[in-house]
Design brief:
The chain has helices at 22-32, 52-57, 64-67, 81-91, 110-120, 143-153, 173-178, 184-191, 202-215, 225-228, 242-252, 272-276, and strands at 10-11, 16-17, 36-40, 46-51, 74-75, 96-100, 103-108, 137-138, 157-161, 167-172, 230-231, 236-237, 256-260, 266-271. By secondary structure, it is an alpha/beta fold. The strands form four sheets. The protein has a four-stranded mixed beta sheet. The protein is flat, with a radius of gyration of 19 Å. The two termini are 20 Å apart.
């Protein structure tokens, strides 16, 4: 099998020509269900990339030329997949643009590279791949508290513990967004999408706009974690392999998993970034 970037990237991704506003990027993200958009000039040459995370971290910026990441690393289609892994594990951003002769030919994420871990059947134990601290929250923590934690830590998934310290759930950024009340007609109007246009996903629209306006002081319902969390989440044993974790993540469309020890105690979280790092360790 060919372990190069082009084997795992998404080919011909949606791009946006500058000059453009943040709302233009958000419209593409919502209507095409993508989380990052490469920016190009009038000739189609690559200029930079903007992701949903960039927008959420800079909610007051409306001009994409100022918001996009101009000096962000890029890849070539023929680059070995290990080069992509090295960059991802250094920058902890979820999207890299693949460029050839100044043109955008693809985009790749850590989740895409999980397929390489599966193909190589990497046996590195999960316990050797944990790199970031897990931040547990209590079942009675409120959505407002969790949203604050997301902003302060840039972590988007939190294991939920009960009074005994046992893992009972997992709450993510998406779970917070699902609890917010945002009208589809209002949002589609702001993005310039007609009511009869069925090419966009309301779930994607709501996700982007809710967090965007939350940071701009939109109120989040103050419900407790136990009301919005995923109950009894899928976990993985610390002695399991990177191969095992990659298979679970791809099967369930997860980017993270709680990790447990021999006593079934939570010891951390493993992310797709961690799992793909097994390719260079």
């Amino acid at each position: 099998m060919n372990f190069t970037v082009e084997s795992y990237m998404t080919k011909k991704p949606y791009t946006l020509k500058l000059p453009a506003a943040v709302s233009d990027a958000m419209k593409i993200m919502a209507s095409k269900d993508v989380a990052a958009v490469p920016m190009v000039d009038a000739k189609g040459n690559y200029l930079g990339i903007v992701s949903r995370r960039d927008i959420l971290e800079h909610p007051k910026e409306d001009e994409l030329s100022l918001l996009m990441r101009k000096d962000f690393p890029t890849l070539s289609p023929k680059d070995p997949i290990e080069k992509a892994v090295k960059i991802f594990t250094e920058i902890y951003r979820r999207h890299l643009t693949v460029v050839e002769n100044k043109k955008v030919v693809g985009i790749i994420t850590p989740y895409d590279i999980l397929d390489a871990v599966i193909a190589k059947k990497v046996e590195t134990p999960i316990k050797n791949l944990l790199t970031r601290s897990a931040i547990p929250i209590h079942v009675k923590s409120t959505a407002k508290m969790i949203e604050k934690a997301i902003r302060l830590t840039r972590i988007t998934a939190f294991p939920v513990l009960d009074d005994n310290g046992s893992l009972v759930g997992l709450v993510t950024e998406r779970d917070i967004l699902n609890g917010a009340n945002l009208d589809s007609k209002t949002v589609s109007s702001q993005l310039g999408i007609g009511e009869d246009d069925d090419s966009w996903s309301w779930e994607s629209l709501r996700d982007i706009f809710t967090f965007y306006y939350t940071i701009r002081d939109l109120e989040i319902p103050n419900v407790e974690a136990e009301k919005i969390m995923v109950k009894n989440p899928v976990t993985i044993f610390e002695g399991a392999s990177a191969y095992d974790a990659a298979k679970i993540m791809k099967k369930n469309k997860f980017t993270q998993l709680p990790v447990r020890d021999v006593d079934n105690e939570l010891i951390g979280m493993v992310y797709d970034f961690d799992v793909i790092s097994s390719l260079i360790k």
